[in-house]
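Customer escalation, tier 2.

The customer says the design service returned an amino acid string that "doesn't look like it belongs to this structure." They asked us to rerun it and document both sides in this ticket. The original structure tokens are below, unchanged.
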């Protein structure tokens, strides 16, 4: 197929049509190096056509490409100038080809643009009236693109001329000098092209970032003025002038319908509609700049950058009443942009010309030893026959010198082998003559045939006695010929089919020329050591006379084939097992699908997925539970959005408009919040994102999350923080008061001692509160350090009870049952947990007279129960009891202090010890907190 395509493409008109198509596509869809600079390969197609098919086809190609481009894009003076330049270039290339047949395309093109330097400057400067910078830009741009096209064309032509209709018929070759020159230039040019283009894009991106930074600063100032209401409808005109004077920008204010409210541009007046679709978007640093211009032709790029203006849309806050756009021109940036374009193109032009100047002598120096070596190897056959002396060249290139050395060694070996072959030929002729005389005897010929057979051959007479046994049979059965011939019967070597059965098989066939044969398969051979191996043999019955018969057995050892069949059976079983595993995997996939569906239904968030047309494909039960709007599966996402909008209390929230923006492809991600008009006035967060699933038609995903409970907890946490601040202020105020009294008055020693004890007590209270806050920080960051050792729990509990018995109204009773009660724990942290639990029991049992602490052992746990007989815990508060900053509602009793941190810290410490902390409680009857620590079987 490939050879047929190559053959057809060698037809001039057909190859030209293909080149026209490729050149037109390369012109219509050029490779953009950076803004306004594009690599169009249309002229490369014309140069290829010129070299392969002739001047007429070259002109046809370039004319057809330009006409098709004019038909599609329209007639433009710049395109006419470019077409004239291509025709002049093509005429030059024809003249070069006539003068130097098969000359280098890239050399011819480079010389052409060097010659055209002064004419182009004269034409552009004095006839077209262009500035020197514009003339330099256009000349460098066209010259660089044309030389790159010539380089591409040269590589394509060299590749094509070496392809023949058949590999064996290819006769076209390319000088090595040209290959070395062309690919050195190609490497340098394309590497420089990529690096300089990348650097230019980087510099332009930096310019974009600088523009955005300046405009963003100005836009922030305008938005701040609007938010603080410094700008009103009465002073908008004055402020537009102020912004232009102070910030150097023109400000445009739009309402929600894109109608101009105020403008610093004389082209836009208040009340005009500003269509944003007329402005081109440029991305930079994650922001959007509206480039106030259409795409420019390459020759208009500098003029385009000189006249271009930028429009930046500011990020609005919630209270900003208008869309804020900031406009500025490129006057402050044009000199830098112009320098980027001219420097890049000049560098590329110099690199291309310099690479060709350097590559020419370099390629000649590398290739010249190979040329001399080629001529030397061409005379090698003549020198072999004449024993001539060879003069080998030398080279400074390491690889070439190694190649010369290897060829020299090969030539020496060939000379030695040639002489050896000559001597062997004479010896072999003598041996052939002698051998021919020996093989004239028929018995020796027969013996040679039998001994050289790759099959075992056994000859048997009519009585079953073996009369011939060749070497392969000796190897196969492990017997010597002298042991078998005339001493053994054939049936003693086989197991399976009997002689009678074999004769019956032969009798089924008629003799043909005194012979008949059959093949015996289900039979085994018996080795000398008694082992059995599978064989297959062909038996030929030969009639020597009326009553005399000879049987020839041609035997093959089919052990390997049998093993292969066994392998096939084993593979079939493995395949069957694989099919079973695939079936099980199919079942597993179905189970996974079911799990996914259960997962979607089990999440706390409401999930809605729509395809690109807006039809809902997935909606879980949670959505219906949240909004109570019914089942929307299979319906339009717009219906769901409209139904939710009717129940939303949040101003300026419109889910229907946001959904339409997703369907139209205007938006890819939204994250917002709204309040739903239900009994609880629930607060929902909404997350919308496009879903690009390969092979699927999913459009986007909506995730609704009920944040009502979280908001309630945040409010509660803020209230508790105020309580904590109060808890901090109280001991500080007490300490400061007593210190001031002691400083102001000369108090008695007893009173001073009493004051100092009070200050110490309040200081310890303040230190305890700060320790709790620090513990919270360590626990949340998993930075708590534990010093683990074997701790006697009974002593710890009794010590804590004694401390509380000295300062509490209630009596702390400790009860222990059988057991050692040694826990592997941090002693100080366990004391902290016990103090928190006993302290809570004291605080929340104001009317009780006792608290019980009980210790005992279970099979795997050490158990500590702290029981009080106080106010208890309400059912609705049990779920949140261990939350950070949460305190039980004690409004019905005397105000009980606390921060709500003790139980949270205690539970985290116990869980870090691989234990549990739980509780049971009844209102007005008291509570029991249960600590369970893992028991250690062996004490270290």
């Amino acid at each position: 197929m490939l050879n047929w395509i190559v053959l057809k493409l060698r037809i001039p008109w057909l190859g030209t049509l293909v080149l026209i198509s490729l050149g037109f596509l390369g012109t219509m869809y050029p490779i953009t190096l950076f803004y306004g600079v594009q690599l169009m390969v249309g002229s490369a197609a014309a140069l290829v056509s010129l070299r392969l098919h002739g001047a007429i086809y070259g002109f046809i190609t370039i004319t057809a490409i330009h006409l098709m481009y004019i038909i599609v894009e329209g007639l433009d003076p710049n395109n006419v100038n470019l077409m004239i330049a291509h025709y002049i270039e093509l005429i030059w290339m024809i003249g070069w080809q006539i003068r130097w047949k098969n000359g280098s395309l890239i050399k011819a093109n480079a010389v052409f643009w060097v010659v055209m330097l002064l004419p182009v400057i004269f034409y552009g400067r004095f006839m077209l009236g262009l500035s020197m910078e514009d003339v330099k830009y256009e000349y460098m741009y066209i010259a660089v693109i044309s030389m790159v096209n010539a380089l591409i064309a040269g590589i394509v032509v060299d590749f094509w001329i070496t392809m023949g209709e058949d590999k064996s018929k290819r006769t076209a070759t390319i000088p090595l000098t040209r290959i070395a020159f062309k690919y050195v230039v190609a490497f340098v040019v394309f590497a420089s092209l990529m690096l300089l283009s990348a650097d230019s894009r980087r510099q332009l991106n930096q310019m974009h970032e600088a523009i955005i930074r300046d405009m963003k600063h100005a836009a922030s100032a305008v938005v701040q003025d609007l938010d603080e209401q410094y700008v009103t409808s009465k002073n908008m005109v004055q402020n537009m002038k102020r912004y232009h004077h102070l910030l150097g920008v023109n400000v445009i204010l739009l309402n929600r319908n894109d109608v101009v409210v105020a403008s610093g541009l004389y082209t836009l007046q208040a009340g005009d509609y500003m269509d944003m679709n007329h402005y081109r978007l440029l991305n930079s640093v994650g922001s959007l700049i509206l480039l106030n211009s259409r795409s420019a032709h390459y020759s208009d790029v500098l003029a385009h950058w000189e006249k271009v203006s930028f429009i930046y849309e500011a990020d609005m806050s919630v209270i900003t009443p208008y869309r804020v756009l900031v406009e500025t021109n490129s006057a402050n940036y044009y000199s830098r942009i112009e320098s980027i374009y001219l420097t890049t193109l000049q560098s590329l032009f110099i690199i291309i010309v310099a690479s060709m100047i350097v590559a020419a002598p370099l390629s000649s120096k590398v290739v010249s030893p190979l040329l001399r070596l080629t001529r030397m190897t061409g005379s090698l056959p003549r020198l072999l026959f004449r024993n001539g002396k060879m003069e080998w060249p030398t080279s400074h290139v390491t690889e070439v010198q190694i190649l010369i050395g290897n060829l020299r060694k090969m030539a020496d070996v060939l000379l030695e082998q040639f002489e050896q072959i000559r001597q062997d030929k004479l010896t072999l002729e003598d041996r052939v003559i002698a051998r021919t005389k020996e093989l004239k005897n028929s018995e020796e010929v027969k013996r040679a045939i039998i001994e050289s057979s790759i099959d075992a051959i056994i000859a048997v007479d009519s009585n079953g006695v073996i009369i011939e046994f060749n070497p392969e049979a000796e190897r196969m059965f492990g017997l010597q010929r002298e042991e078998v011939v005339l001493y053994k019967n054939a049936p003693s070597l086989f197991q399976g089919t009997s002689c009678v059965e074999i004769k019956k098989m032969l009798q089924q066939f008629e003799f043909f020329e005194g012979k008949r044969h059959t093949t015996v398969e289900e039979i085994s051979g018996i080795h000398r050591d008694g082992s059995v191996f599978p064989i297959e043999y062909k038996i030929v019955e030969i009639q020597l006379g009326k009553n005399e018969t000879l049987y020839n057995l041609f035997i093959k050892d089919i052990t390997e084939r049998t093993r292969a069949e066994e392998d096939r059976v084993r593979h079939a079983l493995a395949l069957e097992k694989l099919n079973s595993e695939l079936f099980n995997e199919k079942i597993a996939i179905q189970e996974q699908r079911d799990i996914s569906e259960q997962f979607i239904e089990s999440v706390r968030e409401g999930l809605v997925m729509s395809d690109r047309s807006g039809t809902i494909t997935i909606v879980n039960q949670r959505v219906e539970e949240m909004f109570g709007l019914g089942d929307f599966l299979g319906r339009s996402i717009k219906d769901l959005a409209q139904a939710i909008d009717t129940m939303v209390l949040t101003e300026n929230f419109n889910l229907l408009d946001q959904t339409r923006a997703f369907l139209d492809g205007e938006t890819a991600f939204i994250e917002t919040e709204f309040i739903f008009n239900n009994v609880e006035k629930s607060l929902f967060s909404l997350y919308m994102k496009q879903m690009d699933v390969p092979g699927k038609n999913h459009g986007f995903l909506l995730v609704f999350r009920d944040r009502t409970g979280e908001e309630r907890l945040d409010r509660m946490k803020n209230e508790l923080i105020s309580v904590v601040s109060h808890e901090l202020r109280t001991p500080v105020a007490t300490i400061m008061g007593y210190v001031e009294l002691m400083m102001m008055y000369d108090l008695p020693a007893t009173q001073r001692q009493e004051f100092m004890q009070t200050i110490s007590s309040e200081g310890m209270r303040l230190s305890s509160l700060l320790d709790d806050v620090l513990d919270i920080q360590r626990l949340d960051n998993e930075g708590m350090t534990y010093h683990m050792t074997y701790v006697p729990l009974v002593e710890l509990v009794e010590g804590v009870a004694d401390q509380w018995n000295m300062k509490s109204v209630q009596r702390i009773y400790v009860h222990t049952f059988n057991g050692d009660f040694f826990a592997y724990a941090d002693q100080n942290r366990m004391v902290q947990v016990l103090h928190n639990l006993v302290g809570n029991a004291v605080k929340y049992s104001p009317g009780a007279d006792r608290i019980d602490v009980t210790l005992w052992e279970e099979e795997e746990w050490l158990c500590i129960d702290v029981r009080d007989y106080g106010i208890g815990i309400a059912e609705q508060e049990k779920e949140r009891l261990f939350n950070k900053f949460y305190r039980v509602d004690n409004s019905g009793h005397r105000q009980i202090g606390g921060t709500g941190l003790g139980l949270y810290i205690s539970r985290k410490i116990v869980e870090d010890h691989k234990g549990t902390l739980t509780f049971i409680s009844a209102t007005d009857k008291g509570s029991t907190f249960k600590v369970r620590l893992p028991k250690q079987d062996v004490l270290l």
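Tier 2 assessment: The sequence is consistent with the input. Residues 176-227 form the longest helix (52 residues). The CA atoms of residues 682 and 708 lie 5 Å apart. Sent an explanation to the customer and offered a walkthrough call.
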